[in-house]
Amino acid sequence: MPLKYDLDKIRFATDAATFEKAVDLCEKGKVTRFERGPYGCSAIVLGTHPYKVYVENQHYDQGGCECYVAQKNMLCKHMVAVAIYAVKGGKKLSPEEKMAAGGPKCSGKLGELDNEELSLVKQTVTSSMKYIKAYEGPSKVWFAYQDSLQEGCNRLAKVVSDLPVSRQTASIVVDMLLRLDKKLCQGRVDDSEGIVGAFIEDAVGVLEEYVKLDPSCAQAFAALRDWETCFDWEKRLVGLIESKDA
C-alpha cells in the first residue's frame, strides 16, 4: 500500500517543536533498520534508548513507539522521524523542507503573479480551507478537530508567506480572510482555542506590511468598508485607506 501522506502533510499537521526534533533525528542518522511493509513502516530510532517504532502507511500519526510520549497516546518525534524517512526514502531534506510550519509572514518582495501562478494559489487556498470546517461529532474528536484547524491555518500561512507584495496579492489575502470570517460567523467553526482568530490577526499584520512596501495595496481594502467582521479586524485595514486619503 503506498503512503497516503507526503512531507507537507507531516509538516503542516505536526506542531513545530515535534517536527524540528524529528528532522534532527533524521539528519543525525538516528533512524536505523528501516523497513517498509504492506501496511506500515518500522524502524529502530536511536534516542535516549533504541526505540522500536511503527507508522502506518495511511496515517503517519498512527502506529506506535516505545517512548513515554507515545505510551500516553501522543504523537512522538520518533514516529514523525520514521514518517519523514519513509517519505524521503532516506534522502536528506532540503533547507526549505526542514522548516517547521509557522504563522504568515510578509515576503518583502514586490511583484505580481502570472495567470498560472494565480490559478495555483487559488487552488491551494481552496484545498487548505477544507481543513477549517464545522465541528461535528463527540467530544473525543475535539483534539483531532483542533489539529485540523491548525493544519488548515498552517497551509494558508505558507501561501501568504510565499506571495509577492502587490495590490493583486493583497486582494487575494483579503478574500482569504473574508472566507475565514464567514466560516467563523456562519460555518459553525468552533475556534474556542483561537487558532483561526490568531491566523487572521497575523495575516492582517502582513497586509499592514504590504502597505508600507507598496501604498497602492491599501486600495484592496476598499471592499471591507461594508463589512463587520467577527473580531473587527477590518477596521485596521480600512483605517489604512483613510490615512492614505487624508
Describe the 3D structure.
This protein has two domains: 82 residues, no CATH class; 131 residues, no CATH class. It contains nine helices and four strands. Strands 1-2-3-4 form a four-stranded antiparallel β-sheet. The longest helix is centred in the middle third of the chain and has 21 residues.
Please give a quick description of this structure.
The chain has 246 residues and is of the alpha+beta class.
Supply the key terms.
246 residues, four-stranded antiparallel beta sheet, 9 helices, 4 strands, alpha+beta, single chain
Topology:
Elements: H1 7-13, H2 16-27, E1 31-36, E2 40-46, E3 50-56, E4 63-65, H3 68-71, H4 77-88, H5 115-129, H6 142-162, H7 167-186, H8 195-213, H9 234-245
Antiparallel strand pairs: 1-2, 2-3, 3-4
Terminal residue distance: 63 Å
Low-confidence stretches: none
* Principal-axis shape: elongated
Class computed from helices, strands and strand pairing: alpha+beta
| Rg measurement, Å | 20 Å
Proportion in β-strands: 5-15%
Number of strands: 4
Please bin the fraction of helical residues: 40-55%
Order of helical and strand elements: HHEEEEHHHHHHH
Number of helices: 9
Mean pLDDT value: 94
Q: How many separate domains make up the residues?
A: 2
Strand order of the largest sheet: 1-2-3-4
Major sheet, described briefly? Answer: 4 strands, antiparallel
